[in-house]
Amino acid sequence: SKSSLSFLDTFCFLSSLSLAAMTSSYRVNYQLRAHRRDELIEFIKSLLLTPFVVHARQMQQGSDVLREAYAGIFESVAQLINGHIAHCAEGREQHSPLKELVPSVGFFFTPLDLLEAFKLYDTRTALSSRQFVAPSFNDVRHILNISQVLQIRRTGQLVTFDGDQTLYEDGGNFAQDSPLVSDLIDLINKGTRVALVTAAGYPGQPERYETRLSGLLAEMTSRGLDEEVAGRFYVVGGECNYLFRCAWKSAADGTRRCGLVEIAPSVWRHLQWTDDDARMLLDVAEKALRDGVGRMKLAVDVLRKPHAVGIVRRPHVILTREQLDELALSCKHALHAHGPALPFCAFNGGADVWVDIGNKLIGVQALQQYLGIAPKDTLHVGDQFLSIGNDVATRRGCCTAWVSNPKETCQLMDIFLCKQ
């Protein structure tokens, strides 16, 4: 309507003023560390800052003024997202008001009920009752996650997960007593396909993945899931290079257990590159890694695999986040300048840096095609959504949720499964 358009235009204008009012030091910091920021989250956070500054310290006990202000902002951002979806559907993405305000914003596969998500989050955390701590990056991230899960739980057919810091602790295994084990089994029992999509690449070695997933597979075995139900669980390895499916297998002692069997690449994967291109890409990446290691005099080893190259720190060596970022960004720069034109992922894994041929977007899309599931019915959950992370590419192929640890994943799965 004319009135709603007028309101939205006013909202966009005030939003642009809010962004323009950032201090020069903030803008400088943003430019220096853009690889560690998310423009949409920063945009929403900046909108929430104005009512916090104006009202928080003057609030009376029990006042709803901040709650109403925050609710109005999230409702307006949801309108902007709906408008962006409509502009994209018409092929006019560049004319979207949200695109003008947040140039890096991508595609949304579903609407987001940010108002309902805010209300749920506010009830749990008393966000609108805070007087001294403004809404944070993590507050906005949680609300976006909740809104996405509330939407997709109605139609979701495929849920994919990163491994480290998403399903289990970094470098650990999926323990049988983890509450996420029961959540994943509940998902597959209700007919949802579930997959681990990981950078770890072990071609022809399903036992390596079985070790990481030992708790989940043991619980599936103890519950006696039938073949069809167990077969709803998959592993995509090496970002997009290997696919395994859960199945019952005979153990050496004659017992039967749930394990993983590899699916031939010809069945599910459509290669987008030649062996020569892959070798050339890894050569460029390896040189960039070795140059960076030498430049910073790091005590690490460079490891080359069939579809990846990376660095692994030596015992008792600690690498800073900045050193890992430097290596990942050096590789990206070298590959964009000198590498062959094929997809890759150069990422900071938290304790190491890897360059993989392909990326998780290709892995998720290949699995979607193999299973016949649409992007709007797919959710990917991961912890690496910064520009130097290996989950961020999935935003172009499905709905996503950005977590920082397995506890947050568990909370989102409780919402997905309507336990909360």
Mean pLDDT: 89
Shape: globular
Secondary-structure content class: alpha/beta
N-to-C series of helices and strands: HHHHHHHEHEHHHEEEHHEEHEEHEEH
Q: Determine the oligomeric state from the structure.
A: single chain
- Terminal Cα separation, in Å? 36 Å
Q: Please bin the fraction of helical residues.
A: 40-55%
Tally of contiguous helical segments: 16
Number of strands: 11
Please state the CA-atom Rg, rounded to the nearest Å. Answer: 23 Å
Q: Reading side by side through the largest sheet, how are the strands ordered?
A: 5-4-3-2-1-10-11
Low-confidence stretches: 1-5, 16-32
Largest sheet: 7 strands, mixed
Strand content: 5-15%
List strands and helices in order, with pairings.
Elements: H1 2-20, H2 24-32, H3 39-55, H4 65-89, H5 97-101, H6 114-125, H7 137-152, E1 158-161, H8 179-189, E2 193-197, H9 206-212, H10 214-223, H11 227-230, E3 233-237, E4 242-250, E5 256-263, H12 265-268, H13 275-296, E6 300-305, E7 308-313, H14 321-338, E8 344-348, E9 353-357, H15 360-371, E10 378-382, E11 399-402, H16 406-416
Parallel strand pairs: 1-2, 1-10, 2-3, 10-11
Antiparallel strand pairs: 3-4, 4-5, 6-7, 7-9, 8-9
If you had to describe this structure to a student in words, what would you say it looks like?
With 420 residues, the chain is an alpha/beta fold. 48% of the residues lie in helices and 15% in strands. It contains 16 helices and eleven strands. The chain has helices spanning 2-20, 24-32, 39-55, 65-89, 97-101, 114-125, 137-152, 179-189, 206-212, 214-223, 227-230, 265-268, 275-296, 321-338, 360-371, 406-416, and strands at 158-161, 193-197, 233-237, 242-250, 256-263, 300-305, 308-313, 344-348, 353-357, 378-382, 399-402. The strands form two sheets. It has a seven-stranded mixed sheet with strand order 5-4-3-2-1-10-11. Strand 4 (242-250) and strand 5 (256-263) form a beta hairpin. Helix 13 packs across helix 14. The chain starts with a helix and ends with a helix. The model is unreliable at 1-5 and 16-32 (pLDDT under 50).
